[in-house]
Design a protein that fits this description.
Blueprint lengths: L2 E7 L13 H18 L7 H4 L1 E12 L8 E11 L3 E9 L5 E13 L4 E2 L4 H7 L22 E7 L15 H7 L12 E6 L8 E9 L2 E8 L5 E7 L1
Antiparallel strand pairs: 1-3, 2-5, 2-8, 3-4, 4-5, 5-6, 7-9, 8-11, 9-10, 10-11
C-alpha cells in the first residue's frame, strides 16, 4: 500500500470567500487522507492505546495549480517517500473530477511515544506496513527548513482557547492559519499559490503567544512566538 488514494468532497467549511478551496480546507483534507492511510495500516488515531504511537507534524509545503469550488470531488494520492530515524516525509497529489492535478504537497512528521510524550524511533514494522514510494511531489528539493524572520511587526497577542486544542493536547496545526490571517492587514489579498508552514514548539491550552507580520521578497511571512519572544512556535509563508 505504498500509494494510498482517498476521495473527499469539498465542504462548505473548506471554501473561502470566493467559493474556492481554502488553505485551511486543503490542509484539513490532506490531514484526513494521511490519517485514514495510517488507520488502514494499523497506526491510526483509534489504535494509539494499542500501538502507543502517534504522529506530530513538523512542516507543510503546499502548491496550488487550481482552486476548485464547493462540492467538487477530489482524489488525493498520498505516500511515504522517506523514512529517517524518528521522522518521515509524506507527499500528496490532488486531482479534481476531470483528472486535473490541482495541488501538490509535502509534509514532515515525527513519531511520538504517546505515553512518554517524547520523540521515538520509527520501527521496521511501521516502515513495512506503510511501504515506501520514493517519488517526490515537488521537482525541487524540499528541506523543511525556513529562514528565520526577525523584522516582523508585532500585530497582536492570542491566548490558546479550548476550541483550538486537538487530540494531541496542543493547538491544531490548521488553526495556525487563523492566527496568520488575522495578522495580515485588512485590504491585503490572502491569495497565494504556495504555502509553507514550519512548526517549532507546540502551543498548549492557556498559553499566550505574540503574532508578527512582514512582507519580504513578495511573500507574506507570519511568525508566532511566546509572549517574551524567546520561543518560536511557528513560521508561515504565503507567496
Amino acid at each position: 500500500m505504498a500509494v494510498f488514494e482517498y476521495k473527499a468532497n469539498i465542504r462548505y467549511c473548506d471554501i473561502n470567500e470566493n467559493n474556492e478551496l481554502s488553505d485551511k480546507g486543503i490542509i484539513n483534507i490532506l490531514s484526513q487522507a494521511a490519517g485514514v492511510h495510517s488507520e488502514q495500516v494499523g497506526y491510526g488515531l483509534n489504535e494509539i492505546e494499542e500501538t502507543n504511537y502517534t504522529w506530530m507534524l513538523l512542516f507543510w509545503k503546499i502548491r496550488f495549480y487550481k482552486r476548485p469550488k464547493w462540492n467538487t470531488t477530489l482524489n488525493v494520492k498520498t505516500w511515504a517517500r522517506k523514512f529517517e530515524k524518528v521522522s518521515s516525509w509524506r507527499d500528496f497529489e490532488v486531482y479534481n473530477e476531470n483528472g486535473e492535478k490541482i495541488a501538490i504537497a509535502t509534509t514532515e512528521w515525527v513519531l511520538i511515544d504517546a505515553k512518554k510524550q517524547a520523540i521515538t524511533r520509527i520501527t521496521e514494522d511501521m516502515m513495512e506496513r506503510y511501504g515506501l514510494e520514493p517519488k517526490q511531489a515537488f521537482e525541487e528539493e524540499i528541506t523543511g527548513k525556513m529562514e528565520k524572520s526577525e523584522n516582523g511587526k508585532k500585530i497582536y497577542e492570542y491566548t490558546a482557547q479550548r476550541g483550538d486544542i486537538d487530540v494531541n493536547h496542543h493547538v491544531n496545526n490548521s488553526n495556525y492559519l487563523d492566527f496568520a490571517y488575522n495578522a495580515i492587514p485588512e485590504g491585503e489579498s490572502l491569495a497565494c499559490n504556495d504555502i509553507e508552514i514550519q512548526y517549532k514548539k507546540q502551543i498548549k491550552l492557556g498559553e499566550t503567544c505574540s503574532v508578527f507580520y512582514e512582507i519580504k521578497d513578495n511573500a507574506k511571512i507570519i511568525t508566532i512566538k511566546s509572549m517574551d519572544e524567546k520561543v518560536l512556535h511557528a513560521t508561515l509563508k504565503f507567496f
